[in-house]
Amino acid sequence: MMYQKLLITTLLTANIIFIFPVSIHAEVSSQEQTQHVQKTENEEKGNRDYSEKNLHQLIEELSQYNPELKSLVEKIKAAELKIPQASALEDPRLSFEGSNIPIRNPSLNRTAMTGLQIYLRQKVPFPGKLKLKKQMALSQSEQEKQMYYERFNQLIAKFKQSYFEYQYLNQAIQFNQQTQKKLRGLIQFLNARYSTGESSQQDILQTKQEISNITSRLIQLRSQKKLLASRLNTLLYRPQETELKIKALKQLNNDSSSLQVSLETLKKLAKENRPWLKKKAADLEEAQLGEKLAKKSLLPDFDFGAGYRVRQNPPGDPVMGEDFFSAGVSINLPLYAAKNQNKKIQEMVHLQKSEEYLQEATLQEVLYQTEKAYLEATQLQSQIHLLRSQIIPQDWATIESSRASYEATKVDFINLLLSEVTLLNHRTDQVRYQSQYQQKLAEIEMAVGLPLEVIQTTSKNQENSHEK
C-alpha cells in the first residue's frame, strides 16, 4: 500500500504541476495577444493621417494598413511556426496500470505476478523523416512569403493604375473647364459682332451647343473621379467617406519614369525576380520533398518503451518482492505497401510532374505579361511624343490662324470652333496616354517583380559590366 499511495501521489502531482499550468498559461497568452492586436488596430485607426500625400506616401500607407496584406503576414507567421512543429517528436506516452491483480480477492500481495506498473513510450521516426518534414515546412513558409510579395506587387500595380487614372481625370476636367471658359468668352465676342451684323446667330448657337457637350462630359468625368476615389480609399483601408487628398502631378510623363530598358533585359529580370515564379519553385520543391518522404514511408518507425513495476513481497516470491524493469521496441510493418505506401509514392510523382508543368506555364505567362506591357508602353510613348511634338503645336497654330482669318472675315466661324474642340480632344488624349503609359509601367513592375528605379539601375549596371 505504501508503494501504491506513493505512486498515485506522484502522478497526481506531476499532472497538476506540468499539465494544467501549461494549458492555463497558453490560454492567458492567447487572450493577451488578441487584446494587444485589437488595441494596436484601434490605435492605428485613431491615428491615421489623411492629409495630402504623394504617390510614394500613399503606397507606404497601403502597405501598412491594407487588410489583405496583413492577412498574408499572419499566414507567414503561422507557416514559420510550423517549422519547429514539423521537426519535433510526438509527445511521449505515459501509462499507469495495475497488472495481474486477482479478481475474487483483489490484493497486491497475494501473487508474485501482481504489481503496479508505469510505462513510458516514445515514437521515433526512421532517420531522415523529420528532416524531410522540416524541409517541407520551410518550403511552405517560403511559399507564403512569395505569395505575400506577389500579392503586394499586384496591389501596388492596381493602386498605381487607379492613381494615374485619377490624375488623368483631374487634368481632363481641368482642360474641359478651360475650354468651356474660353468658349463662354467667345460667346460674348460673338454677341458683340452679332449686334453689328458681323456674325450670325448660328455661330452663337453652335458655340452654346459645344459648351453643353463639354458640360455633359464634365458630369461623366466627375462621376468617374468619385468612383476612383472610392476605389483608392478601399485599397488604403480608409472609410469610404474620407476626402481623398492627393498631391497633383505637374506632368504625368517625365524623363525619370521613361522606359529605358530592353525587352530582353526585362524578361531576364522577370525570370530572376518575379515572386510568382519563386512561389512555383517552392511548390515544386515541396512536391519533390514529398516524394522523398513517401519513399521513406516504406521504412519502419520505432516505438521505444520502458516500464517499471512496483511489487510487494507475497509469500513464496523467489525474488522477495523486488521491483521489475522492462524495456522494448516495436516497429510498423509495411505489409500493405502495394495499396498504401506505393500508391502514395505514385501520387507524389504525379504531383511533382504537375508542379513542373505548372511552373513552365507560369513562366510563359510571366514572359507574356512582360512583353505585352512593354510593347503597349512603347506604343503609348510614341503616341505621346507625336502629340507633344507635332499635333498639339499644330493645333495651337491652327487656332491662331483661324482666329485671325475669322476676324478678317476670311473663314467661317465653324473653322475656329472646330479648332478649339480639336485642341481640347488632343490635349485630353495626351494626358490619357500619359496616364495609360504610367499604368503600363506599373504592369511592368508587377511582371518583373521590381520597382522601375531598381530595373533601370540593374539594367545600367549590366550594360556597364558588359562594356568592361
In summary, what is this structure?
This protein has helices at 2-46, 55-65, 67-86, 129-195, 201-235, 263-273, 275-296, 341-407, 413-448, 452-467; strands spanning 93-99, 115-124, 302-310, 324-331. It is an alpha+beta fold.
Corresponding CATH architecture of the largest domain: Up-down Bundle
Reading the helices and strands in chain order gives HHHEEHHHHEEHHH
CATH class of the largest domain: Mainly Alpha
Unreliable spans:
1-7, 16-24
Beta content comes to 5-15%
CATH topology of the largest domain: Outer membrane efflux proteins (OEP)
Number of domains: 2
Outline the biggest β-sheet: 4 strands, antiparallel
Q: In terms of structural class, how would the helical and strand content be classed?
A: alpha+beta
- Total of DSSP H or I helical runs spanning 4+ residues: 10
Q: What is the residue-averaged pLDDT?
A: 85
Strand order of the largest sheet: 1-2-3-4
What does this structure look like?
- The chain is of the alpha+beta class and 468 residues long.
- It has two domains: 1-43; 50-89 and 125-298 and 334-459, Outer membrane efflux proteins (OEP) (Up-down Bundle), CATH 1.20.1600.
- Helices cover 71% and strands 7% of the residues.
- It has ten helices and four strands, in the order H-H-H-E-E-H-H-H-H-E-E-H-H-H.
- The chain has helices spanning 2-46, 55-65, 67-86, 129-195, 201-235, 263-273, 275-296, 341-407, 413-448, 452-467, and strands at 93-99, 115-124, 302-310, 324-331.
- A four-stranded antiparallel beta sheet has the order 1-2-3-4, with no helix packed on it.
- Helix 2 (55-65) crosses helix 4 and helix 4 (129-195) runs antiparallel to helix 7.
- The longest helix is centred in the middle third of the chain and has 67 residues, at 129-195.
- The chain is elongated and about 145 Å long.
- It starts with a helix and ends with a helix.
- The model is unreliable at 1-7 and 16-24 (pLDDT under 50).
